[in-house]
Amino acid sequence: MFRAFNLDSRMLKSRSFLATAGVMALGLASCGGQDAAVEEPVAVESTEVVVTSSCSPLSVVTGFYPLQFIAERVGSDQTSVSVLAGPGVEAHDLELTPSQAAEVTDADVVVFLPTFMPSLDEAVVELNSSVGLDAMAGLTLLEGEAHDDDHGHSHDHDHDGDEGHSDKKSTDDEMIVDPHVWLDPTNVSVIGKTLANKLSELDPACSAIYADNSQALTDEMTALDSEMKTALANCKIKTMVVSHEAFGYLANRYGLEQVGISGLTPEAEPSPKRLAEVAKISKSDGVTTVYYETLVSPVVAETLAKELNIKAEKLDPIESKPEGADLIAQMRANLATLVGGQDCG
Ligand SMILES: [Zn+2]
Fold first, then answer.
1. How far is the CA of 99 from the centre of ligand 1 (A)?
2. What is the distance in A from the centroid of ligand 1 to the CA of 203?
3. What is the pLDDT of residue 174?
4. Which residues contact 28 (CB under 8 A, 6 or more apart)?
5. What pLDDT does residue 339 have?
6. What confidence score (pLDDT) does residue 170 get?
7. Interval between CA 60 and ligand 1 midpoint (Å)
8. Which of 79, 86, 134, 240 has the most CB atoms around its CB within 10 Å?
9. Ligand 1 centroid from CA 52, angstroms
10. How many whole angstroms from 64 Cα to the centroid of ligand 1?
11. How does strand 44-45 pair with strand 50-51?
12. If you measure from the C-alpha of residue 128 to the centroid of ligand 1, how many angstroms do you get, rounded to a whole number?
C-alpha cells in the first residue's frame, strides 16, 4: 500500500523517510514493534497513497519475470518488488550491473531460482543466509539433459505420461536440475506459499494478508491447472519440439514429451548432430509443429520446420514479461497454441 514510495526502494527501508513524509501520524509508529495494543488497521486514502498501519514495507528483489509476478501477487501493496532481468532481456545470460548488485545487497528478500541465472546465485551466496529465498524449495524437481557433443547420449523416447513422475530417464550421466519450474501452475502455487511464509516471518503483523494473497494465487493456478489438464488430455501428438528445453515441467505434468533443439539454456547455434536427431524424432513421431520462442531467434526452428514441411509457432517460455499479458494470460495463450500444435482438439 506504499505505492507512492515504490519509486525508490531504498526509501522504503528508511523509517525516517516515512516520518518525514508525515506517515507517522497515521499510526505507523507501532509497525512491526512490540505494541500489544489491539490495533485497527488505519487506512487513509488519497489519490495515490493508502497506508495500512500494521504492515512493514519490505523490499523484494526477484531474478526474472515469473518470480516477479509471484512476488507482486503475494506481497501486493505491502512490498516493493523489483526484477533484475527486465522485459526483453534474455534472463539466463544476465550479468548483474554494480547497481543491481547493490540492490540485491540492500533487499529484505531476494527470490532466486538456483542455476537459472548464475550471476544472481553468486550474489546470493554473498548475502546473509536469511535474505535469499530459494524458489525451488519444496518443489519436485526434474533433471535436464545436457546436449553436449562430447556425450553421444541417445534420446530416451519413453512415452509414459505418469504424473508426479519426477525424473526423466536418460543414458547420459551429465544431468543437471531443470530450473524452468514456473510452467507447471502447481509449482507457482508452491513458490507463492514459500514466499508468503518468508514475508510473514519478516512482517508477522501482515501474515494474514500474505496468506490470503498466496491462497488467491493458488486458487487461480488450480483453476488453470485443471483447464490445462482437460485441454491436453487427448493430444494425438505427444512429442513437442521446442527451441530450448524450457517446457519440461509442463510436459511432465500434462503427459507430453519435450524434445529441445537446444538444451536448458538457449544457445545461438545448436549442433548439426542435434538438429539431425530432432528431425529424426519429429518425423518418426508425426510432429506437425515446431515451437520457437520470444527472445531467441526463430531461424533454427523455422529452418527445421521448412526441412520437415511442418509449421513453426511461437510458444513463450515466459522467462521475460510477455507483451500485453501476465503469467497466467500467457499460460492460457500457450495452452491454445499447444492444443493446435499437438492436435488435442
Ligand atoms: Zn530457459
1. 25
2. 33
3. 60
4. 18, 51, 53
5. 98
6. 42
7. 22
8. 79
9. 39
10. 11
11. antiparallel
12. 28
Three-class SS state of 169: coil
Distance in Å, CA 246 to ligand 1 centroid: 5
CB 251, CB 335: distance < 8 Å: no
pTM: 0.78
Residue type at 233?
A
- Calpha distance 80→75 (Å, rounded): 8
Cα within 13 Å of Cα(272), Cβ side: 0
Q: Which amino acid is at 126?
A: E
Helices 185-202 and 207-231: crossing angle in degrees, nearest 10, is: 180
How far apart are the CA of 19 and the centre of ligand 1, in A? Answer: 44
Q: Which three cell numbers stand for residue 197?
A: 511464509
Please report the pLDDT score of residue 191 as a whole number.
Answer: 98
212: helix, strand or coil: helix
Q: Which three cell numbers stand for residue 235?
A: 493430444
Looking at beta carbons, which pairs linking 212-218 to residues 24 or more positions away fall under 8 Å? Answer: 213/73, 213/74, 213/75, 213/76, 214/73, 214/74, 214/189, 216/73, 217/70, 217/73, 217/74, 217/188, 217/189, 217/192, 218/189, 218/192, 218/193
Query: Pairing mode, if any, of strands 132-134 and 79-83?
Result: unpaired
Low-confidence residues in the chain, pLDDT < 70: 1-53, 146-175, 268
Which domains, from first to last, does the chain contain? 3-139+184-224 (3.40.50.1980), 144-177+232-341 (3.40.50.1980)
* Residue at 74: amino acid letter: V
